[in-house]
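pasting for ref. prot 1 ->
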Amino acid sequence: MFEQRNPRSTLRSALPLAFAAMIVGGCGETAKLTVADGNGPDPTLPAPNKTLIPTVNIADATGWAGDATPTAAPGFAVNAFARGLDHPRWLHVLPNGDVLVAETNAPPKPKDKSGGIKGMIMKSMMKKAGAGVPSANRITLLRDADGDGVAEIRSAFLEGLFSPFGMALVGDTLFVTNADALMRFPYVEGATSITAPGAKVADLPAGRNHHWTKSLVASPDGSRLYVGVGSNSNVAENGMAEEEGRAAIWEIDPATGSHRLFATGLRNPVGIAWQPESGALWTAVNERDELGSDLVPDYMTSVRDGGFYGWPYSYYGQHVDVRVEPPRPDLVASAIKPDYALGPHTGSLGLAFYTGSAWPTRYVGGALVGQHGSWNREPPSGYRLIFVPFTSGIPSGVPEEILTGFRVGDEARGRPVGVAVDVRGAVLVADDVGNVIWRVTAQAGP
């Protein structure tokens, strides 16, 4: 005997699954502008195009087959510095040449157990993109002792962490940002592991962890630490109370743990680095989603002490986001326009300035940006390592592709994240889908 069902009830139960299938399968509008239109100091900013169903364009995470590599630009070569890592996201090069890599992913989120359509969709999206794996909670040391460009020594340097990300060495102290705290550990040059327990320096905003990464850089004299803390939402849809201390760069005294907000209104400031010529602090910021394929460009900008950069009330200066309630015209009026746009939805995460001598001199002082790749754009954007030239401490040209080939059609072989310059002047790129650290070198000219 068949159970009789209410047709409306059946429809209601089917809608979430159908909606999820559409989201994961891809839908929404298409870009009218090129990615290049959203680059530079004055990007094209069309009217918002908010649709009922957001544009979703996610590549299946496949990894690299065999010995395949990304495609290096003419004049460059790329090789695998280390393969077989576990979701490598961020890099730090120690003075002796050892390379630390954070093998990490998002911590469990409190809302994961609550269910709901949006939670189901997000989990499906993360799994498809290769970001649904559990965090290894480890920092691994890689050593290339013979100088052949491949790490022959690999050691678990720090274990039992909590979604670690940023790393900074000051003297004989290694600072590490977990998702919820800044920690310090004793460091001995040449050691391949740290077994001493860490000490907490300061708590960091945690909880929902919509953006969980906490990047880290030390001031040149080591007296202050700067931590990038992302927002807890897209545009404060969970209320501003959940954004306390977030969408900001913190300045922390490593001796006492006291802190202040150095800059605010930065939706997700991931890469942070010192520009070598000007001495200014710069950050690469992920901007908001769901305003169409052409909005809003990610960007990099110099960071002013006390500066406010718009999130969530406005973007790229005084462009108001009407979704945010209540509005704050007073804050919008003070919003600082970023220095340089990096294209809409490119997922610009990694940021490093080239300070080596092994690449041609025109690259010295310019910015290297790891673009993790889009999910909210059709056609896709990002999935590459780019270089932006600088002159007298400011951007002075169009982006140049250094590594491409991470996405082919609907497959993501890899996704670049953290970027660093090694002691020999090569550039290292963490690829969290390919589970590889790539090493980019300049080839000798004719």
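and prot 2 ->
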Amino acid sequence: MLDPIITMNAGGVIQSASDSVTQVFGWTPTELLGRNVKVLIPEPRRSALDRYLDRYRKAEPSKPQYRTSQFNARRKDGSMLRIELSVSKVDLPAQSSCYFIGIVRDISRHIDTSANGAAERTRLQQFVTEQTRALATATLRLHLADRLASIGSLAAGLGHDLNNVLLPVRARLNAIEHSGLPASGLKHLAAIRQSISYLQHLSDGFHFLALDPDAESADAESGGATDLHRWWDQVGELLRRALPKRVSLRVSIPATLPLVAMSSHWLTQAMLNLIINAGESITPRRKGRVRIWAELSDDGIAVRLAITDNGCGMTRGVLRRAFDLFFTTKSRSLGTGLGLPLARKIALRAGGDVELSSTPGGGTTATVVLQVAARPGQNSKRANSPRTLAAVSLTNVRTSAMISQVLVRRGFDVSAAARSGPRNASIWVTNPSPRLLPLARAWRKRVALGSLVLLGAPPVRFASAWAPLAPTIVDSPDDLEAVLHIVRELTPSPNAPRPRGARSRS
């Protein structure tokens, strides 16, 4: 028999057991003979067993007793299993006491299978819910993308129509000017020309905004160089209109700045998004101020074009997610969450970046870092000059990309650290993983004056092991502004590595 069969006397003492009892309970039939069946039954049913047997014994002989129940039983090793027990009473002729026959079925596997099935159903329900939510989000994103495409088409049409209207208007104004108007008429004509000039600025702005960024390359090698001072003269009127009327705008873009390696239409798209964000961050009750300014970096290889506002600012949590697609603190009717990611994508494709600094209630500064456009012969000269190596190996991809950009702008050749370590890099930015300790020791022997930067404090039990390597420790690796500040501080020049010395920054 596959299911164990156990016979007991009226007191519950086991008289016989089938061989299958070993597979289910771990006892051999011989070991169970003479033992009370209570050895297989744990509390609380064990204490009630005598009462059950007494009730069975008192039943009338003419009414056979069959009982089936489910409960937990105990194996020889003490582990528990779920069984189904069928008990029947047997009255033998010429004997005053009865016997009981129990048939045991192990239903643990069935219960486990049912539990697994329930868990699988729950998992599938959660999966369906998540996929439904993801589908709704994707639908919303498609709707937003469709709206943006419609806006682009509208901008292209407006720019084209304005040019078609303005051309004959300017021609007729020229004709009127030479038709012998009196001085009073010429004064009115000048005012009309001023309005026409404003409309022409708007038309040029729409033209830059409507161009497809993917249709042309934006880097300096393809000729995508822009004079910032002249660019603002062309698109300034359009970008001013992106701010609410209550917000004043001050612009400081020197004419002496070098050309930057970004096409004008790319720059217009990036700055429009940043200007709109600056205006919307200022509450209606506050007198808003926005300043657009530009300066050449200290090393002369980049131009920083920035927008500073006196708006509500951002918390650290919002600042960390500011570049995430479709993340917005505004209602869906007012914001898409695409402005900052789009601006940063444009900057990165042109070899630059977008940096944010903000404090709650203290305003925000969004800085577009633009590479200076290469002059004739500059690329070959740079290719022949020696460059210092830097290695970045971080688990956070976004932080790794940002730090790599800073190091590249400061003249370093940046690469990901190999499995055997960063070789001869003079700067190594990494996480304080204990598995990297042997690699860090080997690297320190090769590069005694190298700068080791750990994003996050090492575990306490490994802190003493890292200390001899003189790392600069960033206590708050999520604070990207602090991390970038430390990286810049460690690299004043590729040819001037800092002396060794452990420091900790938070």
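The first strand starts at residue 5 and ends at 9.
Confidence is low (pLDDT under 50) at residues 213-223, 331-336, 376-387, 492-506.
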